[in-house]
Design goal:
About 3% of the residues have low confidence. The radius of gyration is 16 Å and the shape is globular. Helices cover 35% and strands 17% of the residues. Strands 1, 2, 3, 4, 5, 6, 7 and 8 form an 8-stranded mixed sheet that branches. It is built from 7 helices and 8 strands. The structure holds S-adenosylmethionine.
Length: 213
């Protein structure tokens, strides 16, 4: 089943106070974390832009349900923002220390989210992943994360990822193969560049535009 790009206008609206507070505190903790440690695989995305994208999705008719998963969740900020928008939100992250930070942040804000420690690459997908090349940071180890969540990739209605440039294609390939029909993939590509795609039964001819805030 192919993916079609969705052209969704991103409005530059004010964020609610609780989302602003969360982002401010997350930015503070991330800066402190990065001062103390070197974890180059982790770079934070544009949380304000991600919130606006998710709010738009959460209010519209583009999504088939409210189960959200962040692939490579880092500090878990986008997952936490999704929970504020009443998604049933979870994240999968391969670096244990980031899983701890994500759980701490969500707990401190009283948000009902779940973080699994492991890989978002599903079991059996290794060949598909390495057929696309080699990667600076993407790993296929730890393929028990979905078991920990008690969910399959096909259960997710919305998946968010901030892939490194060498992972962009394979994230699309994994989503296309493992997500369910109608699921939406939201990706961040640096700057103010977000992309939204949906898995459809057959091509409907819509074009490949991107979304900027
Ligand atoms: C560019 S960071 C984005 C972090 C977060 N999504 C955000 O937007 O702030 C990519 C994250 O993916 C994680 N990662 C890389 N490969 C992974 C895998 N196979 N499974 C789970 N996490 C992975 C890295 O450890 C890193 O935290």
């Amino acid at each position: 089943m192919p993916l079609v790009d969705l052209d969704v206008p991103i409005l530059e609206e004010e964020l609610p106070a609780d989302a602003e507070r969360l982002i401010r505190e997350a930015d503070r903790r991330i800066a402190e974390f990065q001062n103390e440690r070197c974890l180059p695989a982790f770079v934070a995305s544009d949380f304000v832009g991600a919130y606006r994208i998710l709010r738009n999705l959460s209010e519209g008719v583009l999504i088939r349900g409210r189960r959200f998963c962040e692939w490579g969740s880092g500090f878990g900020v986008v997952t936490a923002l999704a929970a504020m928008l009443e998604f049933e939100a979870c994240g999968i992250e391969v670096e244990g220390i980031l899983v701890e930070e994500a759980r701490r942040l969500a707990d401190d804000f009283g948000l009902p989210v779940e973080f699994a420690h492991g890989s978002f690459v599903p079991p059996g997908a290794e060949e598909r992943v390495y057929a696309r090349g080699t990667y600076s940071w993407l790993t296929t180890e730890g393929d028990y994360a979905y078991d920990e969540l008690g969910l399959e990739p096909a259960d997710m209605d919305v998946i968010f990822a901030y892939p490194w440039p060498d992972e962009e294609a394979v994230v699309g390939v994994l989503f296309e193969h493992y997500a369910g029909p109608g699921a939406v993939l939201a990706t961040f590509h640096g700057g103010s560049d977000f992309r939204l795609r949906r898995k459809v039964a057959r091509r409907n001819g819509r074009g490949g535009s991107r979304n900027s805030r």
